[in-house]
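Quiz preparation item.
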């Protein structure tokens, strides 16, 4: 039976070439960023128990991962340092010979063509696990700003191409922009973790980076996930303070806010597919409940469809392969 229909959306779905021609969401390997955990020691590569397939590397073993990523077409990495010793003020974060500073120097030596981003925070380096200097049981926002700025500067001096403050202190983008400019790094961009929620999705990361707080939680500085308008305020403030890119974290459960931040701002938007998202996919796929590749691709497309320009993900290498194969992109 023929039905008189003028509009037939299925016309544009009948052929693989046509489907790709009219695809609304476009993805490219250049937008992928892979997070790397770097630790003290020599000749070490340790699997992270809560993140199967992910590892901590000593500086001398990091090269193998960088080359693997480069060969897959992933050109950007974000470094997280795991120091051998911690103290109350996180001095390892801004030490000239700190673990992440040494990692940047080595990375630039072995893979100078790769783009290096530094995560700027204190939590991996403080003995109490919080993201700044304590005053009693609370993080002192303003005292922390100076140390965050010193950390960012030390990373750039060591070879970081971009810095990404993740601490959620008020005013940290301005403090970092000022110290970079004063030291001649006016062209070094800042990617702000502008909209970072106090999320249960971070659990495996705290295992990976040994950064769980020794007491309390981070809800007095990371955002309440009930809040939408506050997200837009945080993003707007960071742009005003000099952020060149703003990030929404986590990615999977916050697509609505990726879209709103993208529509509201005039800077590129990043999203971070965090450790909990990765581990859920890996464990459910291992149990045979989902197809790992298919769900990994679907999650990535959802973030790009929401408005992501830059996607930070532990699946960067695998997604690059899927783009090469035409499964996504």
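Solution:
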């Amino acid at each position: 039976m023929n039905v008189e229909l003028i509009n037939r959306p299925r016309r544009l779905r009948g052929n693989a070439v046509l489907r790709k021609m009219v695809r609304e969401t476009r993805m490219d390997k250049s937008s992928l960023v892979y997070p790397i955990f770097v630790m003290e020691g020599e000749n070490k590569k340790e699997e992270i128990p809560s993140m199967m397939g992910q590892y901590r590397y000593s500086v001398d073993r990091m090269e193998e991962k960088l080359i693997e990523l480069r060969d897959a077409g992933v050109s950007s990495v974000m470094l997280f340092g795991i120091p051998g010793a911690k103290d109350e003020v996180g001095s390892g974060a801004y030490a000239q010979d700190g673990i992440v500073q040494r990692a940047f120097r080595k990375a630039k030596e072995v893979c100078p063509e790769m783009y290096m981003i530094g995560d700027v925070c204190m939590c991996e380096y403080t003995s109490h696990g919080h993201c700044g200097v304590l005053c009693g049981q609370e993080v002192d926002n303003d005292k922390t700003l100076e140390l965050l700025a010193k950390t960012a500067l030390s990373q750039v001096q060591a070879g970081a191409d971009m810095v990404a403050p993740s601490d959620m202190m008020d005013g940290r983008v301005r403090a970092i922009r000022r110290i970079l400019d004063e030291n001649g790094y006016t062209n070094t961009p800042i990617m702000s973790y502008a909209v970072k929620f106090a999320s249960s999705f971070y659990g495996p990361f705290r295992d990976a980076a040994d950064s769980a707080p020794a007491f309390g939680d981070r809800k007095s500085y990371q955002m309440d996930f009930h809040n939408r308008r506050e997200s837009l305020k945080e993003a707007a403030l960071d742009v005003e303070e000099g952020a060149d890119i703003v990030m929404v974290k986590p990615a999977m459960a916050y697509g609505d806010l990726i879209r709103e931040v993208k529509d509201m701002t005039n800077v590129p938007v990043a999203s971070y597919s965090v450790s909990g998202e990765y581990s859920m996919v890996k464990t459910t796929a291992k149990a045979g409940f989902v197809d790992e590749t298919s769900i990994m691709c679907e999650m990535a497309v959802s973030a790009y469809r929401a408005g992501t320009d830059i996607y930070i993900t532990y699946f960067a290498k695998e997604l690059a392969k899927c783009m090469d194969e035409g499964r996504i992109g």
